[in-house]
Amino acid sequence: MKDVVISRLGELVEGLAKDNEQKKAWEDFLVDFAEVCGKADLKEKLQAPISNLLDRISEKELSDGIGLLHEKIDNFPTVDVYKAIIEVLGKKNDENLVRMAELSDVLSELSTPIIQLWQDVLLTPVIGTLDSHRAQNMAEKLLESIADTRAKVVIVDVTGVSMIDTIVGEFLIEMFSAVKLLGSDVILTGIKPEIAQTLVKLGIDFNMVIIKRDLESALKYTIGKFSKGTEKKQPNLKRGDTDEN
Fold first, then answer.
1. Can you list the residues of the chain whose pLDDT is less than 50?
2. Contact between 137 and 143 (Cβ < 8 Å)
């Protein structure tokens, strides 16, 4: 069969594809097919050529092409070829699922970043739809960051959130409670009027957190809080004394 494929290579390629790029893809596949044709482990050896071909043509074009080869070449190993195609597609599907999971993790990181503003303060700006799954991921990341940085204040800015439902609201309360147990204060900023009305109607209580209108107000409050703490630590100096420490 190898000699048949090589001798009819040009004819087969012309029937399989119209544009030059696809013709080259089929030509490479047929050359590789001719090399492994007739070997005991044909199905395994065909997987690499089929995978390379699928990188350059669609699955339908591949299926149509194999059907044509079945008609044009006597004793074409159609069953083995299709078995190899199924295994290749299965592997590609698994690879795509892994990539999707990785992209989902990356998007989660980008959509809910945790920023250390300074030594004792973390900022979590939340943008987009906040569902229970995303809220749980945010809670896990935030609690880990608090434990690592020993932050005293956590600012959660929801200016970019369009809606918070009952489940998410209750989950946020649980997250804020966990943050408080770690010894950090929570400042919630950016609640839109429509979200505020919804939370009131749902009876969700945010009394455990400090509410500020926007991020600027939250930062001013935090700076003022730390400034007061610094003043209390300053020793009482007599006239003429200097604080050299």
1. 230-231, 234-235, 237-245
2. no
